[in-house]
Amino acid sequence: MVARKTTKAAPKLAKNTYATPALEKGLDVIELLAHQPSGLSKSDISRHLNRTVSEIFRMLICLERRGYIAQTDSDRYALTLKLFSLVQEHPPTERLITEALPVIHRVTQQIEQSCHMGIIEGAQVTILAQVNAPTRVGFYVKLGSTVDLMEAASGYVILAHLGDQELERTLTEWKRVTGKKVPEDLKKHLSRIRRQGHEIQPSYLVRGVVNISCPIFDQRASAIGALTVPYIQYNEPKIDLAEGSKILKQACMEITHAIGGKSPADS
Predict the structure, then answer these.
(1) What is the rounded distance in angstroms from the CA atom of residue 264 to the CA atom of residue 267?
(2) Distance between CA atoms of residues 67 and 51, nearest Å
(3) Which structural domain range is residue 6 located in?
(4) Looking at 73-77, 83-87, 186-190, 237-241, which range is the least confident one?
(5) Are 31 and 151 members of one domain?
């Protein structure tokens, strides 16, 4: 009984003690602008965040001075590439990108399809590396773009290869951000991916594209990211889906070993 009282009181105390309204305002601005490619004016930002223009103005001045946002010719504010640059400079991410890029280039030559690498950040998949197909016609996902993790093959592949606690934390964050319920068949879906070791699934967003996705593992044999080939079904393909999945799985194992990771089979 005492333990229950302590558990309930702790979050309330932490919230009151560590409240940082100025930081939260700044983060609110960044998160809002992340979904506005053409930017927003001061009044638009104020309205979206339900704050006064004077409150927002101080945040904008600070963020602009630090290089996180910039003002366009139309007096709108938009995110710069500083956040993306910081992510790439983070040592684990930098090493992952460095080791993955040559492998991704080779995959695109072998399969003659584009290939990208994604990681889960919060409730989204972020594309950290991408290489176009060496063909006149192709399909690719833009570098630095984000997509709801439940609308991306790479999202499901990473989820399928997370530990129980990390999976639960990720799903809790996804529910908080999206306000949605976890799909009823998710457990069965992830179990199938684990058995296969990869995912071959029609694109959740684009017709005519089949995504082949395989996990990249860290030293704990937990998925740290995934390589995905958005496979276009040409009339005379050089490599079919089955062979493409083998090539992609080998590529992911190569990256895994290069960063000091190991697959669940090696554990």
Answers:
(1) 5
(2) 22
(3) 2-80
(4) 83-87
(5) no
Pairwise CA distance, residues 149 & 124, whole Å: 5
- CATH number of the domain at 144, please: 3.30.450.40
Let me know whether 63 and 121 are in one domain: no
CA distance 242 to 200: 9
Helices (H) and strands (E) counted in the chain, each on its own, are 10, 8
**Confidence label for 13 from pLDDT (cuts 50, 70 and 90):** very low
Q: How many domains does the chain have?
A: 2
Using CA atoms, how far apart are residues 88 and 203, in angstroms rounded to an integer? 27
| Residue that is last in its domain, among 31, 64, 80 | 80
For residue range 66-125, list pLDDT tens digits in order.
Answer: 888 888 777 888 888 777 666 666 556 788 999 999 999 999 999 999 999 999 988 899
